[in-house]
Design a protein that fits this description.
Largest sheet: 12 strands, antiparallel, barrel
CATH architecture of the domain at 145-163 and 178-423: Beta Barrel
Strand content: over 45%
CATH superfamily of the domain at 145-163 and 178-423: monomeric porin ompg
Oligomer: single chain
CATH class of the domain at 145-163 and 178-423: Mainly Beta
Strand order of the largest sheet: 1-2-3-5-6-9-10-13-14-17-18-19
Length: 424
């Protein structure tokens, strides 16, 4: 028997159409099933989505609160200063400039250049005795003229015992014993002029007028006088002319002491003590009829002054030697004793216009001679404590006041000096 295949044979075109139709139905069915599964999620997926949404909403709420807090802080903060902005911008520019500079590999610890030279020390010595007063330094500035009027007063009160007798025993004296109390008032008016030849050298001249008044009370003990003898004498005339020069030896640029050489010469233009007449009131009691206003001899006194600045103070010291020249008088050749002196002190600047000084001065006068015979009792020790005050009234005028207090018997008890140097 013949087997027959009952296959339906379709044309070639229809076969392709049937194949595409089956493929399209398969794709559409799969897409539909996937969309159906995505459209209808399971219950567990819904729960996860809801929890995630709640968590995100809480985070957003928290961030909103933080933003509000930041806004409040910005509102409450004060505005920045313009100077701070400028400084910050300057710092940025400086930092940028530094960044542009090439960096060196090693730091060299060597000086960049030479230090500037030290200038000469300028010291205000307006209250220091025996030195110039000016606005530039120790001595008068070059080409500057200083006119200095001065007024002075001194007072001396002393008790002396004069013996013109022979002593056989300590308790037996034959001759004159004179107890004398002396009160002496002296007024001095002077006018000085200083000129600066250069910054280290100056010349000085001083002319003075002296008025004196002495009151002496005497009682000769051994003569038997019942009353005290009171004698008053006065005198007024030109005093001795004083010429001086000063030279600054060093500049003081290295910060050390400044040394000044001084030379003072005195010309005896006043009334000499050897020209004064004396009267004898009682036997052996002699009083002058007129008081001298000068020394009666020439003298030359060199000295050296050292000044050391310790801001705001100034230390100073001076040593001197006075040579008094001999003179011929009626009593013979009189050779006044030479003198040796020293002084030291401290000047203190209180402010830019006021200064004070405290110093001590001592001078020892050797014995005088007449025809090369020493006169006993002619030695003198003159010690004075000096308090000085200075005030810069203007740029060209100073006011200076000094008080000298005698600390030895031969020194005046009190001496006042007021001077007004004026610069031209």
């Amino acid at each position: 028997m013949k087997k027959t295949d009952n296959h339906i044979i379709l044309p070639r075109v229809k076969r392709y159409k049937l194949f595409f139709l089956m493929l399209a139905m398969s794709v559409s069915t799969t897409s539909y099933c996937y969309a159906q599964g995505a459209a209808e999620p399971s219950e567990s997926a819904k729960t996860k989505y809801q929890l995630e949404l709640e968590r995100q909403s809480k985070i957003l709420i928290q961030q909103g609160r933080e933003i509000e807090n930041l806004k409040r802080l910005i509102k409450n903060q004060p505005p920045k200063n313009n100077q701070q902005r400028k400084s910050s911008s300057t710092n940025k520019k400086t930092q940028q400039a530094n960044n542009k500079k090439p960096k060196s590999s090693a730091v060299i610890n060597k000086p960049v250049g030479k230090a500037p030279p030290k200038q000469a020390t300028r010291i205000d010595v307006s209250a220091i005795p025996k030195l110039s007063t000016n606005n530039s330094g120790v001595l008068t500035r070059s080409g500057t003229l200083i006119i200095e009027p001065r007024l002075g007063y001194s007072y001396t009160d002393s008790n002396r015992v004069f013996l013109d007798a022979y002593s056989f025993l300590p308790a037996l004296v034959v001759g004159l014993i004179d107890l004398r109390e002396i009160k002496r008032h002296t007024f001095i008016g002077s006018l000085g002029a200083r000129y600066g030849v250069n910054d280290r050298w100056e010349i000085d001249a001083k002319f003075s007028y002296i008025g004196r008044n002495d009151s002496q009370r005497s009682r000769p003990v051994s003569v038997g006088v019942s009353e005290d003898e009171i004698f008053t004498a006065s005198g007024g005339d030109m005093g001795d002319i004083e010429l001086s020069t000063r030279y600054q030896l060093n500049s003081g640029a290295n910060g050390g002491a400044i040394y000044v050489f001084n030379l003072v010469a005195t010309i005896p233009t006043g009334t000499s003590p050897f020209e004064v007449e004396y009267v004898e009131s009682n036997p052996g009691v002699v009083f002058p009829t007129e008081l001298p206003t000068g020394s009666g001899f020439y003298s030359v006194q060199p000295s050296l002054t050292a000044i050391y600045s310790t801001d705001p103070g100034v230390l100073f010291g001076n040593i001197s030697y006075g040579n008094n020249l001999a003179t011929d008088e009626d009593v013979g050749q009189v050779n006044p004793g030479d003198s040796v002196g020293f002084s030291f002190g401290l000047g203190l600047s209180l402010n830019d216009r006021t200064s004070m000084s405290l110093s001590y001065s001592h001078k020892h006068v050797l014995k005088s001679k007449i025809d090369n015979i020493k006169i006993e009792g002619s030695e003198l020790d003159i010690g004075q404590l000096i308090i000085g005050y200075s005030f810069n009234y203007s740029t060209t005028t100073n006011l200076n006041l000094s008080l000298n207090i005698g600390v030895t018997d031969d020194a005046p008890d009190v001496r006042l000096n007021f001077r007004v140097p004026m610069m031209f």
